């Protein structure tokens, strides 16, 4: 039985009617022949003597397509490439202060380190060499001590999840927290590798983890970067640390509606997953 409904965005869909068929019957539909069914509303048929149907359903094509899972691709030889982006903007607070999200407690951890390890230790098992780069953004870095909205810098290159933690420890006292919290540079950086892989026809997929403490200041540019990346073999995980509302991150997630750029271009697919650290830290 196939049920037809008038779709409403608020979820209160109105029933149009039903039809009875089989998969074999629907599969006979093709370019040269259409398969048609009357759509019958049981309630209207019972109440109205002159009721015939609520319309005609025409099936132009029906075929079965296999949807492969993530593990199917990995077992088939797809290489997973994992990259980390860490927010070092001033809104995180002075890392020497216990109030800072980058403050390393006496037992050697903070929310950023936990997020890097929690996600990295899982994803690296699907990474061929278990080595991945980490980048920082939003800080002044020696020797130039300059930062701009188009800049992200290497925190570590081709290291395991454990060694990335060490690189974080070593870099923390050497940089000056600044601004802005800008995602497009690192999204575009990973997207360039994904685009090259696609052009070469290699079986590779790219995962970008961004850990941040605040709302972003360039939402429009970020939307465009995500829409561009949605056409590529790439996904983005955003982990929000701290107590910010992260409404913009939930918007970028695209679970409730299709993410669109400022010009109205829709994302080819939903590639962003947002996770508030406070809800998952245990």
UniProtKB/TrEMBL annotation:
Q: Which GO terms fall under biological process for this protein?
A: cellular response to calcium ion; positive regulation of tumor necrosis factor-mediated signaling pathway; regulation of canonical NF-kappaB signal transduction
Q: Where is the VWFA domain?
A: 79-280
Q: What Pfam families would the database entry show? A: Copine
Q: Which GO terms describe its cellular component?
A: plasma membrane
The GO terms this record gives for MF are:
calcium-dependent phospholipid binding
Entry protein name: CPNE1 protein
């Amino acid at each position: 039985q196939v049920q037809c409904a008038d779709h409403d965005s608020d979820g209160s869909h109105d029933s149009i009617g039903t039809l009875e068929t089989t998969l074999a019957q629907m599969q006979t539909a093709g370019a040269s022949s259409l398969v048609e069914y009357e759509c019958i509303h049981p309630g209207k048929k019972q109440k109205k003597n002159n009721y015939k149907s609520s319309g005609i359903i025409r099936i132009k094509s029906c075929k079965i397509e296999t949807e492969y899972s993530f593990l199917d691709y990995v077992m088939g030889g797809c290489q997973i490439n994992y990259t980390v982006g860490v927010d070092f903007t001033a809104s995180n607070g002075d890392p020497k202060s216990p109030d800072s999200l980058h403050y390393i407690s006496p037992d050697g951890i903070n929310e950023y380190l936990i997020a890097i390890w929690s996600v990295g230790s899982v994803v690296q098992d699907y990474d061929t060499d278990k080595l991945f780069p980490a980048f920082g953004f939003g800080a002044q870095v020696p020797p130039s001590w300059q930062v701009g909205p188009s800049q992200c810098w290497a925190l570590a290159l081709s290291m395991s999840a454990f060694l990335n933690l060490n690189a974080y420890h070593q870099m923390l006292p050497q940089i000056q927290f600044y601004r802005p919290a800008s995602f497009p540079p690192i999204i575009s950086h990973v997207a360039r590798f994904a685009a090259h892989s696609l052009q070469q026809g290699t079986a590779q997929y790219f995962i970008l983890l961004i850990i941040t403490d605040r709302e972003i200041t360039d939402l429009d540019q970020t939307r465009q970067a995500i829409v561009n990346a949605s056409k590529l073999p790439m996904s983005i995980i955003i982990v929000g640390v701290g107590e910010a509302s992260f409404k913009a991150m939930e918007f970028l997630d695209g679970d409730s509606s299709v993410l669109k750029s400022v010009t109205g271009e829709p994302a080819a697919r939903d590639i962003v997953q947002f996770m508030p650290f406070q809800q998952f830290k245990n």
